[in-house]
Write a structure and sequence with these properties.
It is built from 22 helices and 16 strands. With 561 residues, it is of the alpha/beta class. Helix 1 runs antiparallel to helix 2. The chain starts with a strand and ends with a helix. Its EC number is 2.7.3.9.
Length: 561
């Protein structure tokens, strides 16, 4: 047996065989010529054969896919045989260029042309770059990029996963996600929680495990073990038996003594909202509106936006839906709103700040939200991301009032907002803690970097103190304002207890985490949660804070959490 310690980001204990994510395809050298003895006709024939093979493989996968994944695969398959792409490459081959370099350059030209056309055609630009990489892989005889195809379930192992990698990820085939890089707030972690898959990140060395290696993955403990023994097999079997206990959520989040803690869902659009409602979410604590428009090169109209927002509102009639205005920038660029050349986008013009450089977009979004609210029965609350000062909060509240929005709020993800919460909450009706970014900024640790994973955890006592300060600020002068948590910290059942003890009023998370959080919350009283919060705050490190709290919550081990 060999053990690979990492950071557990989504609970579960499973055993499966490893399938490694293929390495990214490297660019063929500039100016690469045909190999000696290879004619242009032979190279062109090989190019067309590779194009056909990629087309056929993608079509076959599309036949077994559903929903968005099926649409992505079908569109990409068509692009693999695009006449302009193949003819452009053939012309370069005729001039003596290698087939690999020719398809690479032709792909760049076609992608740039589609991007310049804008609209739907611009959305296909990324498909071209995916296809060219697949054709180069076929010509080289190496695995194609993306989620590997498999007829049997497997444990997916990678350096890290990008959002685009997940279009064809089938949770019925992938047993667990394991990465050598990434952190607890990385895309991989968020994806795993949303799909309910056990996951471990920042496990150095796992990307060297050979395909077919049998491994035991413990997503709560954050460990991967090759060639598991009988005790680990028994642990996996026990998890499978108890997982059914977490299948249902009663629809009410509360502590053992009846203190209500509404459990809400984080969603990115109408389909997410419908799924969250079916899983018992008591409302929406974070509607990430930018997810509706990430592939847009141009600003959507007020009517288009209103339709997208209404699809979420309609899933929760009579219930609270907290909408975050466009959080564009950093890892979520929007061409019509953000500057891709910023040297440090995480600290740049993102979120609310985009109104400084591109005025009007936020006003039109607020207009669309108000329009959608009039057409629905949801209780709509609206908050701005990246608020740093009380002055910004007051201006945002004024913009909401002008648009006819009654409940304005702010995201607390910049440390200055936590430190001045009392002043900020005089200006707005509520606050929601975005623990992903709050942790990143408080610890000066990029949340995507595996080597900084131990810093980038909301269990850091410094981050918990900022949460506590925000709650204290919300209660100043007896004018209590609700403070929720919508970052991924809320999905950790042990940390959810601590947050409740710190005075957080609502918890919002990926809908698949609702049942687990509810199951653990109902085993403690509010007073016990407060004591656990004090315990975590007194810890000298994040590791000890987590360990000390978990030791007091035996139900976590009983449920495999």
């Amino acid at each position: 047996m060999q053990n690979f310690p990492g950071v557990g980001v989504s609970p579960g204990r499973v055993i499966g065989t490893v399938r490694q994510m293929p390495k990214p395809i490297s660019e063929p050298p500039a100016g690469e010529q045909l190999a000696p003895g290879t004619t242009a006709e032979e190279a062109t024939a090989a190019l067309k054969a590779a194009s056909q093979a990629v087309h056929d493989e993608l079509k076959a996968r599309a036949a077994h896919a559903t929903g968005d994944g099926k649409a992505v695969l079908e569109a990409t398959a068509l692009m693999a045989k695009d006449t302009m792409l193949i003819k452009g490459a053939a012309k370069l081959v005729a001039r003596g260029m290698s087939a690999e370099r020719a398809i690479w350059e032709s792909g760049s030209s076609v992608s740039e042309m589609l991007h310049n056309l804008g609209g739907y055609m611009a959305e296909r630009a990324t498909d071209v770059l995916d296809v060219r990489a697949r054709i180069v892989a076929e010509l080289r005889g190496v695995p194609a990029p993306g989620i590997p195809a498999s007829s049997t379930p497997f444990v997916l192992v990678a350096e890290d996963l990008a959002p685009a990698d997940t279009a064809t990820l089938d949770p019925n085939k992938v047993l667990a996600l394991v990465t050598a890089g990434g952190g607890p707030q990385s895309h991989t972690a968020i994806i795993a929680r949303s799909l309910g898959l056990p996951a471990v990140v920042a496990a150095v060395g796992v990307d060297e495990l050979p395909d077919g290696t049998e491994v035991y993955v413990d997503g709560a403990a954050g460990s991967i073990t090759s060639e598991p023994d009988e005790s680990l097999r028994a642990a996996a079997e026990a998890w499978a038996a108890t997982a059914s206990l977490l299948a249902d959520f009663s629809g009410t989040g509360a502590t053992a003594d009846g203190h209500l803690v509404p459990l809400l869902a984080n969603v990115g659009g109408g389909k997410d909202a419908e799924a969250a409602a079916k899983l018992g979410a008591q409302g929406v604590g974070l509607f990430r509106t930018e997810f509706c428009f990430l592939e847009r090169d141009t600003e959507p109209s007020v009517e288009e936006q209103a339709a997208a927002y209404k699809s979420v509102f309609d899933a929760f009639p009579g219930k609270k839906v907290v909408l975050r205005t466009l959080d564009a920038g950093a890892d979520k660029p929007l061409p019509f709103l953000t500057d891709s050349t910023e040297p440090n986008p995480a600290l740049g013009v993102r979120g609310y700040r985009t109104d400084f450089t591109t005025p009007g977009v936020l006003d039109r979004q607020l207009e669309a939200i108000a329009l959608a609210e009039k057409q629905s029965e949801a209780d709509v609350w609206v908050m701005a991301p990246m608020i740093s000062t009380a002055e910004e909060a007051a201006r945002f509240a004024s913009m909401c009032a002008d648009a006819g929005i009654k409940t304005p709020g702010v995201m607390v993800e910049v440390p200055s907002a936590a430190l001045t919460a009392e002043a900020i909450l005089r200006e707005v009706a509520f606050a929601s803690l975005g623990t992903n970014d709050l942790t990143q900024y408080a610890m000066a640790a990029d949340r995507q970097l595996g080597p900084l994973a131990n810093l980038n955890t909301p269990w850091q006592p410094a981050v918990l103190r900022l949460v506590g300060l925000t709650v204290e600020g919300s209660r100043a002068e007896g004018n209590t304002k609700p403070v929720g948590v919508c970052g991924e910290a809320a999905a950790d059942p042990a940390l959810a207890v601590v947050l409740t003890g710190l005075g957080v009023s609502t918890l919002s998370m990926t809908a698949r985490s609702l049942a687990a959080v509810a199951a653990v919350l109902k085993t403690v009283t509010l007073e016990e949660a407060q004591q656990l919060a004090k315990l975590a705050l007194s810890a000298p490190s994040a590791t000890e804070a987590r360990a000390w709290v978990r030791e007091k919550l035996p139900v976590l081990d009983e449920l495999g959490l």
